[in-house]
TrEMBL record:
<dbReference type="Pfam" id="PF00591">
    <property type="entry name" value="Glycos_transf_3"/>
</dbReference>
<dbReference type="InterPro" id="IPR035902">
    <property type="entry name" value="Nuc_phospho_transferase"/>
</dbReference>
<feature type="domain" description="Pyrimidine nucleoside phosphorylase C-terminal">
    <location>
        <begin position="431"/>
        <end position="498"/>
    </location>
</feature>
<dbReference type="InterPro" id="IPR036320">
    <property type="entry name" value="Glycosyl_Trfase_fam3_N_dom_sf"/>
</dbReference>
<dbReference type="InterPro" id="IPR013466">
    <property type="entry name" value="Thymidine/AMP_Pase"/>
</dbReference>
<dbReference type="InterPro" id="IPR036566">
    <property type="entry name" value="PYNP-like_C_sf"/>
</dbReference>
<protein>
    <recommendedName>
        <fullName>Putative thymidine phosphorylase</fullName>
        <ecNumber>2.4.2.4</ecNumber>
    </recommendedName>
</protein>
<dbReference type="Pfam" id="PF02885">
    <property type="entry name" value="Glycos_trans_3N"/>
</dbReference>
<dbReference type="InterPro" id="IPR017872">
    <property type="entry name" value="Pyrmidine_PPase_CS"/>
</dbReference>
<comment type="similarity">
    <text>Belongs to the thymidine/pyrimidine-nucleoside phosphorylase family. Type 2 subfamily.</text>
</comment>
<dbReference type="InterPro" id="IPR000053">
    <property type="entry name" value="Thymidine/pyrmidine_PPase"/>
</dbReference>
<dbReference type="InterPro" id="IPR013102">
    <property type="entry name" value="PYNP_C"/>
</dbReference>
<dbReference type="InterPro" id="IPR000312">
    <property type="entry name" value="Glycosyl_Trfase_fam3"/>
</dbReference>
<keyword id="KW-0808">Transferase</keyword>
<keyword id="KW-0328">Glycosyltransferase</keyword>
<dbReference type="InterPro" id="IPR017459">
    <property type="entry name" value="Glycosyl_Trfase_fam3_N_dom"/>
</dbReference>
<dbReference type="InterPro" id="IPR028579">
    <property type="entry name" value="Thym_Pase_Put"/>
</dbReference>
Amino acid sequence: MTAADTSLHLVRAGIDTYSQPVVYMREDCHVCRAEGFAALTRIGVTLGPKSIIATLNVVTEAGWLPADAAALSEAAWALLQPRPGDRATFVHPEPPASDSAIRAKVYGQELTEADFTAIIGDITGRRLSELQMAAFVTACAGERLNIAETIRLTRAMQRAGETLDWGGAEVYDKHCVGGLPGNRTTPIVVAIVAAAGLMIPKTSSRAITSPAGTADTMEVMAPVALDIAALRRVVETEGGCVVWGGNLALSPADDLLIRIERPLDFDSDGQLVASVLSKKAAVGARRVLIDVPVGPTAKVRSPAAAASLAQRLAAVGEAVGLSIAVHVSDGTAPVGRGIGPALEARDVLAVLRRDTDAPADLRGRVLDLAGALLDLRPDAAAGIGRARAAALLDSGAAEAKFMAICAAQGGFREPSAARHRAVVTATAAGRLEAIDNRRIARIAKLAGAPGRKLAGVRLLARPGDLLRRGAPLFEIHAETPGELDYARSYAEAQADVFELRE
């Protein structure tokens, strides 16, 4: 080893840092001293023809890591794929090309298409740290992205990945902007629309700020981590799919940005529209229905906010070649009974199987959305889509199509149930007027959802019900006693999650 040597042996740390490459070095390591590396420094790592940018974590105890070695997180290990005995070199990298653009946005300047292209390129190239991405997400929050910037960001996100070509076929898609617990319409809508003979390749996200995303719920019943070749095979065979978009290269920056938005617990209209429509364009869709639930504790709080979002969706959709229809729905209370992946999956199956006790509100929303999508067909007679959707659901055709899609994605699994449960009851008598969407969702998350697939909340009362004191309101489901106690303690301190009027 020479004085100028900046190489170290590589070892596997066995630490999951999600998609963020991280390197671990001892503080007395000769490379740390020579290069002046400190904790959270961004460092360039080169192994043969492969190079990555990673974040440094400094190890202060000498026990587990030799001084002449660097440990790689799982993400860094997967990118470099070292062999036993390999040494990598470590240097200070050039600043990311998008540094100045992010700084400009922080100070309120309007960004050009080239700026957004540079930012998205650095995000997908893993050249930005989590702090830099958080700065970008925060600088774009609220109303800080105008419509022109939203169009530029959407195009940049789409260009960063692959766009599917379905040979000129009419491709349909739908999306809900979220904020409404239990609103798991997508798997049923996909089954109905595919059963009607239309093509609907649905890619979905995992939860950002909710107890379950569509991908989380669908994963309870069938594999969702398909690659593009498998997605294409499923859609060409069955007409539709419900898969996780994070495993595809369709809009690769989106999943990385979602990882930053999740702990921040917000997303803006501009970022929401760019996220949704870049994925719709990338999957090859042309006719897209957007569900916008509106309510005082939903993500979209007022009709005026819904109208503003619809205007942005339409403008950006037109710019990227999408025909957008917006469906404004009731967002005043959760949908169905289950909140959490497995509990929502049970509601989905109850509707598909036409069970007598299937949630009527979930069924009604499904028929509204599937009907609106069927009405988007160029040759459709106006207003008959809902009746067609009901016929496909009631005949069992939608259930059969859903099972066929699950089989094509890797096989159907019946949802199981959590072992640990606790019922929360009413502390007063009266009519149930409203349920706070955000706080009931928080209870489900404290119980372990969405990471714990069986965790969540099962609603036992609905707005409009007349309740006596001590009547059951909801049941908490958890996979461990500790998570059950944690969620129950919070729930018992939030007596007004369910608004009762005497």
